[in-house]
């Protein structure tokens, strides 16, 4: 009897548990689907506008082609500054590590020296492994290119037939809860769209501000720090902290006073992002506590590495909305039962 009452809630919980578990058992397939979904959410508003004037398939193709062209253009523009600077940074990295280890207030602490030595040795070993495996990376590029093509095709069909797919999935649940499931899907997609669009805006703003700061101060590796800061913004809370520590430490090789000023700059930038930019762009739509975000990112990193850290917040958002929907349905079901019992009692008393 209980299963019948809460059948849709149980099915929702099981369905989303199975879908999320695919990231553990089939990470490549799940990652392709999830990235395609995020691209679809990003490009859907423009596709809907164009679909009012031209066939939807043509609108989806044009929007996807325009996005791909813009992405390639941006990558080309960034690469002109980033690749030479990054090559110089890789070449200078051993000297930079020695300069950091020779900073007076670090040199006097045996504990910090030991920790830094371990970190630098691991990074050097990792760099060596990357150089050794460059041939393997070139050989595996073909498979990555195929993944990119698959993502583009999946995104195209999601843009073209996403609404029909959503209705079909909702029809698999009990008919009486069709509207409820459709409403849940809309809430999840809306929250994910808000999150991904906001993250892209914040990442671009952060990268530009960091690039301008390092350029105006005539500090080296401006584009490297800008790209690192922009990418790290995709990992809320922990990412900006890592980027700030990275930038501050390496500017300490120029001048300790400049490193202190850089730390103040990163602190100010982080506070502005999290107290003004985030609330303005995201508002209360996600309503996630920082502790939940941090623990989710740590757990995602333990399970799936960098991909898990990036996908942690969307996972938490989906789980939160599903749990809230199940709880709300349970409360409504109990209220209906209590109301029906009260009406039945009143009817008996009237007789």
Please explain how this structure is put together.
The protein is mainly alpha-helical and 351 residues long. It has one domain. It is 88% helix and 0% strand. InterPro entries: AI-2E-like. Pfam families: AI-2E_transport (PF01594).
Poorly predicted parts:
126-142
Distance between the termini: 29 Å
Q: Helix/strand/pairing class, anyone?
A: mainly alpha
Q: What is the radius of gyration?
A: 25 Å
Strand content: under 5%
Query: What percentage of residues falls in helices of 4 or more residues?
Result: over 70%
On the 0 to 100 scale, the average pLDDT is 75
Number of discrete helical segments: 13
Q: Topology as H/E string?
A: HHHHHHHHHHHHH
What is the overall silhouette?
Answer: globular
Largest sheet geometry: none
Number of strands: 0
Number of domains: 1
List the topology elements:
Layout: H1 2-5, H2 7-25, H3 27-51, H4 56-101, H5 104-107, H6 110-132, H7 134-171, H8 178-216, H9 222-232, H10 238-251, H11 256-281, H12 290-304, H13 306-350
Helix pairs in contact: 2-3, 2-13, 3-4, 3-7, 4-7, 4-9, 7-8, 8-9, 8-11, 8-13, 9-10, 10-11, 12-13
